[in-house]
Amino acid sequence: MCDSGQQKVEEKLPEETLKRWESEQAALKLQVIENNTEEWQEDPLFCGLERVAGVDLSFIKGDDVTACAMLVVLSYPELEVLYEDCQMVAITAPYIAGFLAFRETPFLVEAVLRLQREKPSLVPQVIFVDGNGLLHHRGFGLACHLGVLTRLPCIGVAKNLLLVPGAPGKEEFKDQVKAMQKAGDSFSVTDTCGRVLGKALRSCDKSTKPIFVSVGHQISLDSALRLTQSCCRHRIPEPIRQADIRSREF
User: Which UniProt keywords apply (predicted)?
Assistant: First the structure.
C-alpha cells in the first residue's frame, strides 16, 4: 500500500552536489514564465480548456525508496478521468528540503513524455502539482521545475504553508485563516520584500484548512487561483486528489 503522507526524513548530501543543484535551479528559474500564455487562461470561464492533469508520488509504507509515480488527465469542466499512468519507481536521490524536485521530477517528466508519445490527443493543457511553485525558498519549487522541463503550464498546490522568509507568523496565520469564511476566500503569502509568492485559499466550505497555490510556469497567479478553485470538489483540487487516490490504490 502506498502512502502519500509519508513523513520525509532529510538526509545529508555532499556540499558539491548541493551547489550543483542550486546552480541548476538558478539556471532553470530564468526560464519560468509567471504570466498567462494561453487564451483560455484569460477567459472568465476558461473556455477552450478541455484537459487538466494532476501528478503525485506515493511511497510504499515503511519504504522510502519504492514509490508510485502517477499522472492522471481529467476532462474540464466535468473533471472525469480520461487517462492514467502509474509506474513503480526506485527513488535514488535523497530528500533534501528545498530540493524535492531533484527527487521526484525525473519520474513525473517521464510520465508526461510517455503520454505525449502514446496518447498525444490527451496531453494536458495544464498540470496541477502536489507541491510548491514560486512559493519556495529560492523561488523555484517542484511545480516550476516540472513546468520548465515539460514546457507545459503548471500550478503548485501545497497542503501546508512553506515557511519562507516573510511568511506570516503562527498567530498572524491563524487570524488570516480564521477570517476566511467561505470557499474562494484567500490571502496573499509574501516575502520580506512584499512580493506575493502565492495565495492561501479556502477551497471548499466543508474544510477550514487552506491550501497554498503558487505559479509553476506559464500561468498567472490570478488564473492559477481561479482554476484551482474551479477544480475543487473537496479541499484538494480534483486532478491532484485523483492522482493521490489512484497511486495509493495501485
Answer: Cytoplasm, DNA-binding, Endonuclease, Hydrolase, Magnesium, Metal-binding, Nuclease, Nucleus, RNA-binding
